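W.,

You were right to be curious about this one. When I first looked at the sequence I had no strong expectations either way, so I just let the prediction run and decided to look at it fresh. Below is the sequence, 251 residues in total, followed by the output.
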Amino acid sequence: MLRLLARSLPIALVVALCMVLVAPREARAQSLRHLVYTFTVGINSSQHDTTAANGISSMAAAGESNQILSSGDNAYNGEVSDKGEISLDIVGMRPDGGLVVTANESAKERHERDDTCVVYASTNALCTDPATYQEIYAVIRTLSPNFYVGVALDQANHWRVSDPKADVTIDFTAKPETDGTVDITSQRNARLKGVVSGTISATASYHYNPSKYVADSLKEYTTMHEQRGVGSYVDTTVDITAQLTSDSRTH
């Protein structure tokens, strides 16, 4: 169940949240920097069909079958969680400014094979595997060396990234700390287009270290509403936390 929910979510998120449409697989390269994050993730998904006058729906979740007696709404619910480590290797920079990163996840419930991702200063990213887990996207978003350093802040320490064609807007606010680190919050709003329509809202916070170009810790909470035809929709939430535990760069 965890694999089903975790793998079905990023495919839709990538379409709406990533401005980069193609990320060709890079040749295996030597690691320039190695990072390890521990993470937790919780996923809650509910599917509704309001076209049914009456009905009983069931869904196996964590080995149990939940039955819901409904009148006008057949609901399928699933809630899962996991925790583990994500290992990242920075291997280079593309001519278009994208940072090339390889990622591997080891968790309690599953293991993710090596994947190659490209990350841009806007925090938009794309991995070669369309089913890459959402927690990997969460930890790589701020890895571009141009994410914060040199960004044009307004008087409220705010900046915005948007792509009207993709219908994506991201607002960032920075709060510098006395120790040189920065607390950054972001609000990402997007619309799903195509066969499946809907909305995505993602709120994130990063404790960012500008001298090392990494977030020492982060939280990301995403809500997604997918409309799948008349009377049928899916609501999903993903709650992610991550903490940097190892960095090959010492200064």
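Here's what jumped out at me. The longest strand covers residues 74-93. And, maybe more interesting for your project: The helical segments are 2-17, 134-140.

Coffee later to discuss?

I.
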